[in-house]
Write a structure and sequence with these properties.
The chain is of the alpha/beta class and about 240 residues long. The chain is about 30% helix and about 20% strand. The strands form 3 sheets. The chain has a 6-stranded mixed β-sheet, sandwiched between helices. Strand 7 and strand 8 (about 160) form a beta hairpin. The chain is globular, with a radius of gyration of 20 Å.
């Protein structure tokens, strides 16, 4: 708890995964993928409860063994390939309210596919969010390695059309990248929303999304087997450096 605000993390870890089978409990660097997010959450100075939302009993047991709470199993209809985040978080928070009369103030979303986040990243994000009561949510972003000002659509006639332009300026796609406006990519390293944003506005972001600019050492979102191979490489590299 911080500033009398109850902070909870929810780690969504469904059983199905087509690109990387059983991804959330597949060993990465010697431990299940979901364990990284659980350990980061438990090490946070400000997160009061660490909850894993899963539809899978095996994942539930593994999550518990690493210290997460699994007070409920997520309904199967909320664990499909195309299930968005909001109904998953709404279901979990509604269950806690109905069964424990527990209502947090801040809900942190820690995706298991970002094992390279740090505890410091989490705690700084929470502090930033609390300093801005006008924000409905906060999302980590980092400077995009490529700028959309140099990207194009292809018209039906086969010609290039700039994807993004600066009003009043010509041929900005020819400008040096350093002269173009900064553009940021959202990363799943840290998301957080107020309870009322999720439950009352029925949204994971609301209307005012606060930018949390980070500089991650490793930018990998584990979605493909190639991503996994890259993650293994960096995990092993870090383990050697820490010896």
């Amino acid at each position: 708890m911080i500033d009398n605000q109850k902070v909870i993390s929810i780690i969504p870890a469904r059983g199905g995964s087509k690109s990387i089978p059983r991804k959330n409990i597949k060993p990465l660097g010697g431990k299940p993928l979901v364990a990284y997010s659980i350990e980061q959450s438990l090490a946070s100075r400000y997160i009061d409860r660490t909850i894993c939302s899963t539809d899978d009993k095996e994942i539930a047991e593994i999550a518990k063994s690493y210290g997460a709470e699994v007070p409920f199993l997520r309904p199967a209809e909320l664990a499909q390939d195309d299930t968005p985040d909001w109904p998953v978080f709404f279901q979990g928070l509604q269950w806690l309210k109905d069964n424990e009369n527990y209502i947090p103030d801040i809900v942190v979303h820690l995706s298991p596919t970002h094992p390279f986040r740090t505890v410091e990243m989490i705690d700084k994000g929470i502090i930033l969010f609390l300093e801005r009561p006008d924000a409905d949510s906060v999302r980590s972003v980092f400077l995009a390695p490529q700028t959309p000002y140099k990207m194009h659509f292809i018209t039906k006639e086969g010609f290039l059309k700039p994807a993004l332009t600066i009003p009043g300026k010509k041929e900005t796609y020819e400008w040096p990248r350093q002269k173009l406006p900064h553009v940021y990519l959202q990363g799943g390293y840290f998301y957080a929303a107020r309870y009322r944003t999720i439950m009352e506005k029925k949204s994971m972001t609301g209307d005012k999304i606060l930018a949390y600019i980070i500089e991650p050492k490793v930018i990998i979102d584990l979605d493909t087997l190639f991503d996994w191979e890259m993650a293994e490489f960096f995990i092993q590299k870090m383990q050697k450096e820490n010896k």
